[in-house]
């Protein structure tokens, strides 16, 4: 409403003014449209902290008001009013806030009123996204959208690792296919980890088939629509945001000191009948060094080196240092980010420009890892004529990442992070000569070479909107994106130093350089037309028809060479063993789509979508398919019989949908062609041949698997039932969805045939599974005098059941005792034994074994005694076994848990008072089971002679009354006695971990200076803030694990740690 507006009291407007001269005191009364007084409404002189609230009769009195000041009147659930004070008292009527009813959400190829949406759509606004200083947009969404699951990537907290995410759980278990959300930035596929969060206007998450089916075969996993900001007419507005972050490792379990470590290792060896590693003399040397009584901590080996493992027959040269390697190798870092945007324009042309720079420091103390992101955006919108609009946008993003080659690259498989968990504390950081010890691997980090990657993304989008006649629009969108990636890895020869300070090679006998270049082009035209018509009778129609196509091409080349000859490591400065490889591939899709929307007075709602989709990834006869969806809604709050409740309930919409989508997202873009792998070994790695022919190793190739001409679409069918409820002037909003998603014809493992065939069997469509779950979001927002607050709770759950799987014998474990799929299995099921407990004495174990006369626990191992696990004979056959590892005969195994995260939640609390704002965000999982692997050093500690380390919690292991350990007996120890073999480390109920957690993900406190102050310096808005990420965690999980990294990567928790961050910054508008 215009601040100049004033109306007679008999009018129908939302503002009424009566005239009573009051000088510099502004008085008045605030009522609603029904004439009821509003208690606690905020009345403030705009741009100042001078304010008051209405009393029990809705009246107010505000002193020190000048004639011409703007009076702002607001209350939750009503539209805010601004009135120019002219010296007269005010009689103000606030109108119900219909923003919820008129709110428009972004949907596929357009927008809809939120109240009329019949599919399952969640939205997140710009304030929620930009409020937290995070490294990527996906991090800001964690816990914000019910049903959207965000987890740590395989690289843990590494700067080179991106978050993983899905919508409504696992979308496929197919071999060689994937179901991931389709991320569209202003209508074109993009990377959510790369976009500048400050550029985002809003995000819509399309979760069911009715909402996302119009995108066809690219969207079986749902769609995330990101709409970026654009220019607005008016004067030029400049925004600047920054933040400075102090980063530290989040979960750093404390390693055992060297003395307790040595005692535990001795126990491990003697428990297995071996000789202790650390003699009484060596133990005393360790104690003397810890107490400062001795300065000697290393002894030279016979080879004249300090190497701890160089002479295994002489344990007397074992060092006696006392090092906590996690704290030695990981430390604090600093990150800063800056964003600048400029927007403005006229009624005809608007523009938006932005730039962002993020500089992240890693947590490695040695070798330095860092990441920089540069983002630039330019957008222009123009109304060329009354019937033609045009827009153009350009986005550029560059991401530079650098780390030691010993600790960079593929973090998932990088053995460095596994090694860190196994470093022995007796090994010192430096030797007596001041050089880093060989076992510390520090020289590999600092001198072993560098891993560097640079990723550039350039996106162009040109759009035309033609409106030949009223309500008929023709949209033409041309999207083009190019990606350029460059990677460099050099491995330098690494030297250690012996007792005489002479260097010798300890790693990378032959230095090498590998460089990788990648380019891709993506072209995506969209052409669609829509026509809408509203009749006076209350019937509203909207029809859309369109065509979409995608063409993606990529090319890559890799070259490597050995023997670096210069300080500058490039291919040109190497000399031997040149290898190169490359490839070119492409795929394409095309689709015709249509949508019909209908509603009657916003009361009865219907939507029909059709998509006829084709893909290049299947043979011609299977290339095209039709995918429909239907949805209905009924807003009962618009019914005549609901009129008496409209003051209480403004929206009560029941909705339901069904739809089908195809999945063409195969890993192999040419699954119907037989291809030959050149220069690949049996593990899929590029390598020259193994045999010398005429003095050289020639190229090698191997025959590929057979292919099936019947391979076709995976299909996803989704049923969704839900409701939307708004009450109490939209202060309370509730959204609920129940869904069932059936994935059919997934590509599964090939049927087994005799080895006589001599070649791999082709994969076929032979898997089905069903995902069921529910989601709820509850939002409450209110105001008490000057205090405004809000609470938002998001909660979701889902389970996945296998309906069909090529496992006729219903095998539950493979030959390595890992879980397998079978019809009826839940994804994430954990099979294990029932734990009775730890035997306190040898006699207790003998009595336990005597009760099982048919082999007892012999299948699992021998030499059972005090400190070992007693397993339960569940099937009563007199022995502990896995039976035939089938569903019909699984011996003494049972389902002991499930690793699927259940009841994922996010809780947002926010408050504001006189310029101050406070936000707290909690996030977590209420149910999840985790069974550490038998080789998990992080959980068990002792898992083998060279695979052993002990963190402090691991010292709570069983020690009998007859122990020689100076620490004495520990009959109630949590862990069984340490052993090199894994008989006590089988999956079992006694050590199944509860991986549920609640984490205070973010706390932000801000203060916005009064405009009366900032406007003196030509600043429209200025806000300062302090923020903290990952402040504390509540969990019963073992202390050595972070609940967000448990089970990731290849090393069962041994990974790059997540971060705790404290930051500060400002946001200014000019």
UniProtKB/TrEMBL annotation:
Short name of one Pfam family: Plug
Membrane topology: Multi-pass membrane protein
Subcellular location, record wording: Cell outer membrane
The entry's keywords: Cell outer membrane, Membrane, Receptor, TonB box, Transmembrane, Transmembrane beta strand, Transport
Domain TonB-dependent receptor-like beta-barrel: 461-1031
A GO cellular component annotation in the UniProt record: cell outer membrane
Domain of life: Bacteria
Residue ranges annotated for the TonB-dependent receptor plug domain, each copy included: 114-223
Protein family per UniProt: Belongs to the TonB-dependent receptor family.
Protein name: TonB-dependent receptor
